[in-house]
Amino acid sequence: MSLFEDTNPKKLSDLLGEINSRTTVLPDFQRDFVWDPSATQELIVSIANNYPAGSLLRVRDKTKVFAAREFEGAPALNGYIHTFLVLDGQQRLTSLFQAFYGVGDHRYFLDLQKLMSGADFEDAIFHLRSGVKWVKDHEEFSAQQKDLMIPLSLLKSGSGGFLDWIFTYTNHLADEKKVPTQNALKAISDKWFKVIDEYQFPVVTLSDDVKPDALCTIFETLNRTGLKLSVFELLTARFWPHNVNLRILWEAAIQKFPIIKEYEVDPYYFLQAISLASRPTPSCKRSEVLNLKASEINEWWDRVVEGFGTGLKILRDDCRVVTPKWLPYQTLVTPLAAVLAKLEPTKTPEFGARREQLKRWFWCAVFGQRYESSPNSQSANDFSELVVWLKGGAEPE
């Protein structure tokens, strides 16, 4: 008996289509969908850049031993007979299905004006809660046309849907503007959307001859060890020969400041904060973080740890964010920690005044929804302006 039916790559659009048609479902014992929308956004950016995003594992479910359920947001099974059960990849597939099919608690949009001006994909994608009036308005073509912003769900059937949108959009333009605008929008499609069209996940499909007890063992093993390889792990491996052990540093950090673990801070944010604080031109984009040097970790790690410890206490004690669920945007903790690392706060009246300034920034960022889109660019901008302001310079925008 062969354990594997095949190990072939499958197009993302086909995989999501199978979820929508209820050909692919989940075993009912799978945990619920738990991803934060910023994690979904990061995954979409990786796909648009054609970066690997891990493999998927499914089984051809001929015997129907396990109860099945649909993916969260997908049409209800209602008696449909499925073909595949997904054993590994639920979170990624659910997040992508919800994003591209426009279901779930958040909606994802693309700013075409930014893409036309040459911005990176990660600076042009943003998400909002599904119940926001702006989201409801931009389900209509007229609002998309006015703001040059489209829902990601326009691409669920491929870039062909966007090409139809282009012709509808440019129909009203004067002849001298029509062709240049069409060309500019088609260039976006060629650069980004066709990559998404062609994106493939490596998919391992287990044979329908695999026994139920073997499936249970496989699933148990995956859920015990199935952590994605993050930038933090990649840099841990890279810095090992330089006697910099990020894993030990991380364990020491959460031991010194338990609040870091309590607020579920991703260790990747520490690397982003170091990138912000150490660069002549602050940036915390993935490419910059991946280019960090061991010497920069040695120089900035302890200061960034202090920054996160102090910053989280400010959020808890001064801003009354008493639980991680009350923090509207996890990503804004990064520039806060980087600023504190850069300025190295002390127990002085001056720092008391700075805490008041940081409280003002926090509430402006929250109510201004500044971290709904382009959090990396926003972090770099806020970091630069806050450092100047806290040193007595101009007030941030």
Give an overview of the whole structure:
The protein is of the alpha+beta class and 397 residues long. Helices cover 54% and strands 11% of the residues. The chain has 19 helices and ten strands. The protein has helices spanning 12-20, 37-48, 90-101, 112-116, 121-124, 133-137, 141-147, 160-170, 175-198, 212-225, 231-239, 246-256, 258-262, 267-278, 286-290, 294-317, 333-343, 349-367, 375-390, and strands at 4-6, 9-11, 24-27, 56-60, 68-69, 84-88, 106-111, 125-129, 149-151, 200-206. Strands 1, 2, 3, 4, 5, 6 and 10 form a seven-stranded mixed β-sheet that branches. Strands 8-7-9 form a three-stranded antiparallel β-sheet.
* Rg over alpha carbons: 23 Å
Q: What is the typical, i.e. mean, pLDDT?
A: 89
Shape: globular
Order of helices and strands: EEHEHEEEHEHHEHHEHHEHHHHHHHHHH
Approximately how much beta-strand content do the residues carry?
Answer: 5-15%
Question: Which bin fits the share of residues in helices?
Answer: 40-55%
Number of helices: 19
Low-confidence stretches: none
Helix-and-strand structural type: alpha+beta
Largest sheet: 7 strands, mixed
What's the number of extended β-strand segments? 10
Distance between the termini: 66 Å
